[in-house]
Design a protein that fits this description.
Layout lengths: L6 E4 L2 E4 L10 H5 L2 E3 L2 E6 L2 E5 L1 H12 L10 H14 L5 E9 L13 E8 L9 H4 L1 E5 L20 H13 L4 E5 L5 E3 L4 E6 L2 E5 L9 H12 L4 E5 L3 H6 L2 E6 L3 E8 L2 E2 L7 H14 L10 E3 L1
Bound molecules: 4'-deoxy-4'-aminopyridoxal-5'-phosphate.
Length: 306
């Protein structure tokens, strides 16, 4: 099949792709009560290495907290399962998807005795927003859908149900000929993309919305902030960015595990500066890919070798 996966880890065991099944009355399917992660493993000079696995695991467990969801496997078990999945399938670089959700018991909204089920899959996945995106940038649309406010649903938890909003925004953009969306929060300020955080560069300084803007606390966002500071940039990581600033920015880019660092060249068909990848974006992309692909010895603590 297209995902090129033959083994999936599920509830403590490795099972064949076709056997990784759940009940149709699972709570998570009906009410969106799951949490998940998206992680990348890069093919470095020292072999496959999972990038920032510890932080992804932290967020995975933390995402379950608001939902009283205790993931019934500890860090060592999930780590070993993931490493073994990569090894068994001879993957070099890949995308890793852990998911935990309330399974089948009753269909009341309260998941009283519903078991928490956990699965992990890994498969090869190239660039998220198209092959040319990393160099040329993407055209984005400011979605007419607002992001849910953090007072309505915890936006710092990576919950499956939240992605209904991401899908609405992303598909609206694609129906209108754009590659991706930018989603404003309830206050009308810039929040993030459907699956990416957003950065703005102005007069050589870097801005990104803070957690109070109803965003996911992205691990790539955090990586970009650290790398940018190491490169001498002032980073305003609690910024509040108004819609109009999107049009006047010197540079804009997305960050995310899937999207990595992707320049934004146009917003609502208005070019960002001259519509090409900006120099700060390019410098940070270079630093990022040198790091994750193992061409730099920095931040060894961010790599878990398979
Ligand atoms: N925001 C949203 C809504 C996302 O889904 C993602 C992808 N996980 C991100 C931001 C970026 O987060 P990360 O860098 O941890 O992948």
């Amino acid at each position: 099949d297209e995902m090129d996966v033959d083994t999936i880890w599920m509830d403590g065991e490795f099972v064949d792709w076709e056997d990784a099944q759940i009940h149709v009355l699972s709570h998570g399917l009906h009410y969106g009560t799951g949490v998940f992660e998206g992680v990348r493993c890069y093919d470095t000079e020292d072999g496959p290495a999972i990038f920032r696995w510890d932080e992804h695991l932290d967020r995975f467990y933390a995402s379950g907290k608001p939902y009283d969801m205790e993931i019934p496997f500890d860090r060592e078990e999930l780590t070993e399962a993931t490493m073994e999945l990569v090894r068994r399938q001879d993957l070099e670089s890949c995308y890793i998807r852990p998911v935990a959700f309330y399974g089948y018991d009753s269909l009341g909204v309260s998941p009283k005795d519903n078991p928490v089920q956990v699965a992990i899959a890994a498969w090869p996945w190239g660039t998220y927003l198209g092959d040319e995106a990393l160099e040329k940038g993407v055209d984005v649309m400011v979605s007419s859908w607002r992001k849910h406010a953090s007072s309505q649903i915890p936006t710092n938890a990576k919950t499956t149900g939240l992605y209904v909003n991401s899908m609405l925004a992303g598909e609206e953009a694609r129906r209108n000929g754009y590659t991706e969306a930018i989603v404003l929060n309830k206050e009308g300020n810039v929040a993030e993309g459907p699956g990416e955080n957003i950065f703005m560069v102005n007069d050589g300084e870097i801005y990104t919305p803070g957690l109070s803007e109803s965003i996911l606390d992205g691990i790539t966002r955090n990586t970009v902030i650290e790398l940018a500071r190491e490169h001498g940039y002032t980073v305003h990581d609690q910024a509040s960015i108004s819609r109009g600033e999107l049009n006047t920015a010197d540079e804009l880019f997305f960050s995310g595990t899937a999207a990595e660092i992707t320049p934004i060249r146009k917003v609502d068909n208005v070019e960002i500066d001259d519509g090409t990848r900006g120099p700060v974006t390019e410098e940070l992309q270079q630093a990022f890919f040198d790091l994750v692909e193992g061409r730099s010895d920095d931040h060894e603590e961010w790599f878990s070798y398979v």
